[in-house]
Amino acid sequence: MTGGRDELAELLQRAGLEIVGDAPTEEVLRPWAAWRPLVSFEAEPTVAVHCDRPDLVAELNDQWHRLAVKTGIIGKDGVFLIDVAGNWTGCAPRAWTRVRLATQWDLAGVLGERPGQPEFVTLSTDGSTLLGATVEEYEVWLIAVDRIRERQEAAARAKAQESPEERAAAWTSLLQGPGPTRRLRELWSHGLARNPSMPDGLRAGLLGLSHFVVWHPLPTAVVEAAIIHPEWKVRGVLAEAQPNLTAEQWTRLILGEHDSRHRWILTMLAADRQAELTETAYEQLAADASTQVREEAARLPGLPARMMTALAADPDPAVRAAACPRAWPRLGGPARRKLLNDPHDKVRAEALLQHHRDHPMPPAVFDSENLEECALETCRLERGLAEDLARHGEPAQRRSLAGNPYLDPAVVERLAQDPDEDVRSVVATRPDLTEEQRAGIRINIDPHGHRSPLRWVMALHDDPDAMRRLAASSHPLVRRSVARARHLPPDVVERLARDEDRVVQLFLAESCDDAPAEMLLEVWQWWTGSFSFPDRPHSHPNFPRRDLLRYADDPNPRMRQLDE
């Protein structure tokens, strides 16, 4: 099963599990490690239930609950940790979900490919006991493991005393006996795909077996193998995830697709990722027989001007609407008037939005063309219209208006005192405010929120003076946006590394190559990685690499991991 965290939450709710919020789980076994006793060749079931039982689901639920109570999986407050088989986090680290059984629940019927084939592992909140369910050839096994910390310590001591001959014998025994299960082969493939020491030839062989292969920069030979791989899924994930595709590789990947739907998806991914293509690719995609392909081609950042203006006159209205915003500055008067009078509402709306960035929009156009939200955010409005909306508009209208770059200062001042905090929050991030004005706006900032960086701050990342000024801002989101810069002056780095907002430090660790080692080590203690930066801060070039053995007895388990 695959999906995102939202899909996982929905699945757990269907299984009758109430998600009870987040709490630190750094002291307990990580999910990937909790699966090891379930998929081990030496695994033995605590309870085995034959798959041909007519009451299979009910029996599995009863047996799991009996064992969960007996072994202490379910705590006094009813809370336990769960991880369900499947890819729910992309390339981000797996994470436990804290749950509690609802009045009606059905783990064995929901948490698997089909009812009666559950694949999940549960853990007590103190990390002392795990209980998992996994499907074998003719049976479903429930496997309970207690005294986890004692077993870990014993295994670590044994490993430390293992001789080279014993280690070689262990690897030999692993491949003897019955072949691995499908689930085990999948886990092996994922593990090998993440191993940086894998030879290129073997890494190419993992294409189609593990999606993790393409989530990190690949050697040219492996990329070329993926481009011509017979499985569409491999080619699609390559376009979605591979960070270093060249213009020539993008071109071969997209133009090599004979299926128009696949070509459309790849073009859409290229546009989403702001990829550069070759002149040949632009010409063919702009003239593609598929309307959807031409529509996405209009979003490609490197599409030549002559092709963009041609798409603005495309026979299909969806293509004209997609091309209009970027073609508008290059169009002459007759072409603009044609779009403004287009018979299709969507095309006409896009043209009006562009036209009224230069010409104030009167109330009559605002009320009649269904442009409301986009017009409020991006168009010049006649002053009377803007003032009326700031005074009497609905909260949603005022929130959209608050970010409009063309507002009169008096309107901005009124919105800065708006009774709705969401409106004031938008005003507080405007680029035209002085820092004194910004500090004077009453707002509350969620200290744990990881909101996207402000685009106008990111546009100034190469301006050292602007970074110095904005790094001293009273607004955490402004400082967080500064911290997303690839490089920063030393004094700015020093200031942000000491910032009272931990998210500022986190963003500095993830994005800035100049982040200091001391701060990276501090962030490592409480942050385990994100979807976009799964290996940071540990993979940061400034992360400490020497003398890590001194943390072997550190009370923080994250610090002890540095000794692994």
What would your notes on this structure say?
This protein has a seven-stranded antiparallel β-sheet. The model has no long low-confidence stretch (mean pLDDT 88). The longest helix has 16 residues. It is an alpha+beta fold and 564 residues long. Strand 5 and strand 6 form a beta hairpin. It is built from 33 helices and seven strands.
Summarize the structure.
With 564 residues, the chain is an alpha+beta fold.
Give keywords.
7-stranded antiparallel β-sheet, 7 strands, 6% strand, alpha+beta, 49% helix, single chain, 564 residues
How many beta-strand elements? 7
The major pleated sheet works out as: 7 strands, antiparallel
Give the N-to-C terminal Cα separation.
31 Å
Q: Enumerate the spans where pLDDT stays under 50 for 5 or more consecutive residues.
A: none
Strand order of the largest sheet: 1-4-3-5-6-7-2
Strand content: 5-15%
Shape: globular
* Share of helix, binned: 40-55%
Structural class: alpha+beta
Tell me the number of helical segments per DSSP (H or I, 4 or more residues long).
33
Mean pLDDT: 88
Radius of gyration: 28 Å
List the helices and strands and how they pair.
Blueprint (H helix, E strand, L loop, with lengths): L4 H10 L2 E3 L11 H4 L1 H4 L7 E4 L5 H16 L7 E6 L12 E5 L5 H4 L9 E4 L6 E6 L3 E7 L2 H13 L3 H11 L7 H13 L5 H6 L14 H8 L4 H10 L5 H9 L4 H13 L6 H8 L4 H7 L7 H7 L5 H11 L5 H8 L4 H11 L7 H6 L3 H7 L4 H10 L2 H8 L6 H8 L4 H7 L7 H5 L15 H4 L5 H8 L4 H8 L6 H8 L4 H10 L5 H10 L30 H5 L3
Antiparallel strand pairs: 1-4, 2-7, 3-4, 3-5, 5-6, 6-7
